[in-house]
Design goal:
The complex is a heterodimer of chains A (about 170) and B (about 775).
Chain A: H1 2-18, H2 82-96, H3 100-113, H4 118-130, H5 134-145, H6 152-169
Chain B: H1 2-10, H2 15-59, E1 64-67, E2 72-73, H3 81-90, E3 94-95, E4 103-107, E5 110-115, E6 118-120, E7 123-125, E8 128-135, E9 138-144, E10 147-148, E11 152-153, E12 158-162, E13 168-170, H4 180-190, H5 202-215, H6 225-234, H7 241-257, H8 260-270, E14 272-276, E15 279-282, H9 283-292, H10 301-311, H11 323-339, H12 345-353, H13 370-381, H14 386-391, E16 395-398, H15 402-422, E17 431-438, E18 444-448, H16 460-463, E19 466-467, H17 473-482, E20 491-494, E21 519-522, H18 523-528, H19 532-542, H20 544-555, E22 572-573, H21 575-586, E23 590-591, E24 597-601, E25 607-610, E26 616-617, H22 621-636, E27 651-656, E28 662-668, E29 672-679, H23 694-703, E30 718-724, E31 738-744, H24 759-768
Parallel strand pairs in B: 1-16, 3-4, 13-15
Antiparallel strand pairs in B: 1-12, 2-11, 4-5, 5-8, 6-7, 8-9, 9-10, 14-15, 16-24, 17-18, 17-29, 19-22, 20-21, 23-26, 24-25, 27-28, 28-29, 30-31
Helix pairs in contact in B: 2-7, 4-10, 6-7, 6-8, 10-11, 11-12, 15-23, 17-19, 17-22, 20-21
């Protein structure tokens, strides 16, 4: 496993050169993401299909399938709810003002509300990276990878944090 | 003494000698007086030191307050209007239209509340009006001060305090938070000349004596508030003259050295107002919470009068046990208040009619959530000593979710009662422990240490070390999946094992629960039906030592010896350790330290410590994703299929130790992981399997939490296939026991005879390989 990770890491590190490193602890809003996979995918996690723009943040009770609904890989992750988007903005303001502990606290609050949002985990990873906590930064980026689904742009962002964390540790 | 004897002799002496003698006597007397004065002054200085250091010290002796997680309200949250009302009541909100914070109304699907101000650890929130509308079992719209809002949080409920071993607990109120009626009422009833006297009050004593003679009882004392304060500091009720004088001296010193306002505020925070189990309720701030479950500033005149009434004898006038006595004294206090013009005649008339309406706070008897607080104390113990926690007035924000905690306690109580009735077991002897954690953060949401959850006692969730049985099997399967040599459809043999001799022990001869052999079965069924022989064979194939190492990593324990019996859970672990272990699975492969405390603040609101999230990836996410599918099959097809949530897409595993001594269940939905143990303290047989005991409690708990299906992910390189649960072959939706699981693209699966796919599909299968 370690070998495989190292392998992936090498590939991720090469990416650093070509990917624009997102400055700041909390990124700007998402840019359009590529349709084709970038070559750094290792763990393409997916989730049951979700309506594209559902209003409620939690699924309403649904008819219960006898077996889990067949899901196919490369599905989009659940869209981020407006609730946690507001908190993400608040965290961004705190981080811009230099109050990283507060930004982390707000992001953790958002994660308690929407624990499967890849963006929130990536933001949390960035804040820890900026605080110099490289070990946890890498772990939170890895956590984000559980939830990125077919959002290869987010997957890439997570790998950039991992690569930066590794680079900074050395 | 001898000098005095010499006096008569001196009278007959010469004038010169006499005057010398007189001078001598005078000189000696002077020395004596000086010595006496010096001694008295020294003693007064000593008293001064004692009383001022006590006074100054006590002003800061405030036990740390512990808060639960605040409830977050947002559109989409699954919640009924009734459940929101429960949360508001937990915070001591009163129902009924009112302009004051701490009130709410509930009509049909709408709840309106006036939220109190609160300083959260990330900033203050002023009083806020909210309106919540429920539609379709979830929050539909949310308004904050008339504007649509995306997120509002209620104040976090206070769940306890770390008071010192002598049991004194208090909730400090500042002069600004003290209602004028309370301070003026106290003076009117207890000490009319408080503002003018010098610490003692002769007129007061005289008046009290006359009143007592008139009424024929001793209802009026002559002690000033200052004297009562001194008396309270030294907790000594002996009524000796010396004590009285000492008290008097100290009262005079206090009065001379401090402002009246400081003394009154100290009194309001000091005075003993009742007993709550091991906890002594001191001060009006806590008294208000204890008797009425709301802040002091929200009390009405009748309630303030009752608290003043209680001072004179907290057990004699205990309103819980002696409501009639307490009421008549309250009415007396109200009479004084009216007499002094503190309340109008109208208010008096209204208050007199009010019954003694007490709201017992959610919990009584020594601690509110003692099992959870145990765990929080463990975590805090690394950085803070007990004295610090008992005296510095810290605020501690924890991860407890009262809603989940209450659901877990109710589930334990109701389920154990039912099991004992149904199975005709002796009543009240079965015990249980429950831990609930957040899947993705690992934060502890609830801890139930035993059947009587509200009482401090043996905390089984943390300390009961019991054999875990089949609850451990998922680690065997995960180790196999991580090796890359297995998937959920891989066939393993459920067949007799060669006898295994372990030195110095009886031969180990495991067999299946039903004493049968099931032959070749897919891995998913070995797990789902909890087949012992298939599991042991699988574990031996991947290496018992490897499995032992995984157990140690996941549960956070030392590596256990790699005996084959370990594969069937022959190891004693606590529910807390099993929660850590299952936390790795529920989180997608991450291990987190046990966490109950989010932040500690000092009295001024400055953060002393924050405990941010921490985690470490310890298992392959691909393997965990497959195992999670497997655990949903335990529910759908396997040993937990009797669960009322079997087909809801939740994941779990049963566990039963040898001879049915321990009944376990661990399971999770989309947000919460819950681990349950049921058994007897003396390790007797319960005759309960994991599904007859632990699962029943888990089901009852989940029923209160609106379980949502776990997020199942298909790892890259895998595709979902319909296979037969019994044989592991490819099948069709209407053939055999079809289940959908992720299978590697390159895996070769044969079709179940008679359930084969069409020729074309088989043809395609050929080429896709």
């Amino acid at each position: 496993m370690v070998q495989r990770l190292n392998h992936t890491l090498d590939r991720a590190l090469t990416l650093v050169g070509i990917v624009v490193v997102l400055a700041g602890c909390v990124s700007e809003q998402q840019t359009p993401y590529p349709r084709t996979p970038v070559p750094v995918t290792t763990t393409t996690q997916t989730r049951p299909p979700q309506p594209q723009y559902p209003q409620p943040t939690q699924p309403a009770p649904q008819p219960i399938p006898q077996t889990p609904a067949p899901v196919q890989p490369q599905q989009p992750p659940k869209p981020q709810s407006t609730v946690t988007l507001a908190l993400q903005d608040e965290a961004q303001r705190a981080a811009t003002a230099g109050d990283l502990p507060k930004a982390i606290q707000i992001l953790e609050r958002a994660i308690r509300i929407q624990p499967d949002s890849p963006t929130l985990w990536i933001e949390l990873a960035r804040c820890h990276l900026k605080e110099g906590n490289t070990a946890q930064a890498e772990q939170f980026a890895r956590k984000a990878l559980l939830f990125t689904g077919n959002r290869y742009d987010l997957e890439q962002q997570a790998w950039v944090v991992i690569a930066d964390a590794r680079a900074e540790k050395q | 003494m001898p000098r005095r004897k010499s006096k008569p002799k001196a009278q007959g002496r010469e004038p010169a000698a006499r005057s010398r003698t007189r001078r001598l006597i005078l000189g000696n007397l002077l020395i004596g007086v000086c010595l006496g004065v010096a001694f008295l002054a020294g003693y007064l200085l000593y008293l001064n030191h004692v009383i001022t250091s006590t006074f100054d010290g006590r002003r800061w002796s405030v036990p740390a307050r512990v808060y639960a997680q605040p409830l977050e309200l947002y559109p989409g949250l699954e919640m009924e209007a009734d459940e929101i009302e429960v949360e508001l009541k937990r915070l001591g909100y009163r129902r009924g239209p009112s302009k004051a914070p701490g009130s709410y109304t509930h009509t049909g699907n709408e709840v309106r509340a006036k939220l109190r101000a609160f300083t959260f650890s990330d900033g203050p929130r002023p009083p806020t009006d909210i309106r919540v509308r429920i539609a379709d079992h979830a929050i539909d719209t949310l308004y904050e001060n008339g504007q649509p809002a995306s997120l509002v949080r209620l104040e976090p409920p206070m769940i306890g305090s770390f008071f010192a071993t002598h049991g004194e607990d208090r909730l400090i109120v500042s002069p600004e938070e003290t209602p004028v009626l309370l301070s003026e009422g106290l003076k009117a009833v207890e000490d009319r000349n408080f503002d003018t006297h010098a610490g003692f009050d002769l007129r007061g004593i005289a008046r009290a004596a006359i009143a007592d003679i008139r009424s024929g009882d001793l209802s009026q004392g002559g002690s000033t508030l200052t004297q009562q304060l001194v008396k309270s500091y030294f907790l000594d009720n002996r009524r000796t003259l010396w004590r009285k004088l000492k008290e008097l001296a100290m009262a005079v010193i206090l009065d001379a050295r401090y402002q009246k306002a400081d003394l009154l505020n100290a009194y309001i925070n000091e005075i003993y107002l009742g007993q709550d189990g091991e906890r002594a309720v001191h001060g009006f701030g806590l008294g208000s919470q204890f008797y009425f479950n709301k802040p002091l500033s929200e009390l009405d005149p009748a309630e303030i009068a009752l608290l003043i009434a209680v001072i004179r004898g907290p057990s004699y006038y205990n309103p819980f046990t002696h409501p009639v006595r307490a009421r008549s004294r309250r009415d007396l206090v109200l009479g004084h208040m009216a007499e002094f013009g503190l309340i109008t005649a109208e208010q008096h008339a209204k208050a007199i009619r009010q019954p003694v309406a007490l709201t017992r706070s959610a919990r009584q008897g020594g601690g509110y959530y003692p099992a959870f607080l145990d765990l929080a104390r463990d975590q805090l113990g690394h950085e803070y000593d007990g004295n610090e926690l008992a005296s510095r007035g810290y605020r501690i924000f924890t991860t407890l979710e009262p809603r989940v905690q209450d659901a877990a306690e109710r589930a334990v109580a109701a389920t154990l009662d039912r099991i004992e009735t149904d199975r005709k077991l002796p009543r009240g002897e079965l015990e249980a422990a429950v831990l609930v954690a957040n899947n993705q953060t690992g934060e502890i949401s609830a801890v139930v240490g035993g059947r009587k959850a509200g009482f401090q006692g043996f905390n089984r969730a943390l300390n009961a070390r019991r054999p875990v049985g089949s609850l451990l099997k998922p680690v065997v399967y995960l180790t196999a999946l991580e090796s890359g040599n297995y998937n959920l459809a891989t066939i393993i043999e459920d067949a007799p094992l060669p006898q295994i001799e372990v030195r110095g022990q009886a031969p180990w001869d495991p067999h299946n629960f039903d004493n049968e052999f099931h032959g070749p079965v897919p891995l998913v069924r070995g797990l789902g039906d909890s087949l012992n022989l298939a599991t042991v064979r699988l574990g031996e194939a991947v290496g018992v030592d490897k499995v032992a190492a995984r157990i140690a990593t996941f549960a956070g324990i030392e590596q256990p010896p790699a005996y084959p019996s370990l594969l069937l859970g022959a190891i004693d672990l606590t529910p807390l350790e099993m929660t850590r272990l299952y936390g790795v699975i529920a989180s997608g492969g991450f291990s987190s330290p046990v966490k109950t405390v989010l932040a500690v603040e000092d009295e001024e609101g400055a953060t002393l410590n924050r405990y941010p999230l921490q985690m470490q990836q310890v298992a392959q996410p691909e393997a965990v994703a497959q195992l999670t599918y497997g655990l949903t099959m335990v529910m759908q097809r396997g040993t937990a299929h009797t669960s009322r949530f079997a087909t809801r897409g939740v994941a779990g595993k049963t566990g039963t130790s040898n001879d049915f001594r321990d009944s376990w269940f661990a399971g999770f939905d989309a947000t919460h992981l819950a681990v349950v143990w049921v058994g007897y303290d003396d390790n007797r047989e319960t005759k309960l399997t994991g599904s007859a005991g632990g699962l029943q409690v888990w089901d009852a708990l989940m029923a209160s939490l609106h379980p949502a299906p776990v997020t199942l992910t298909t790892p890259s390189g895998f595709e979902l296939q319909l296979i037969d649960y019994a044989t592991g072959g490819l099948t069709q939706p209407d053939c055999g026991e079809p289940i959908t699981v992720p299978i590697p693209y390159n895996a070769r699966l044969s079709s179940v005879p008679g359930c084969g796919s069409t020729f074309m599909e088989r043809f395609k299968q050929w080429f896709s390989d």
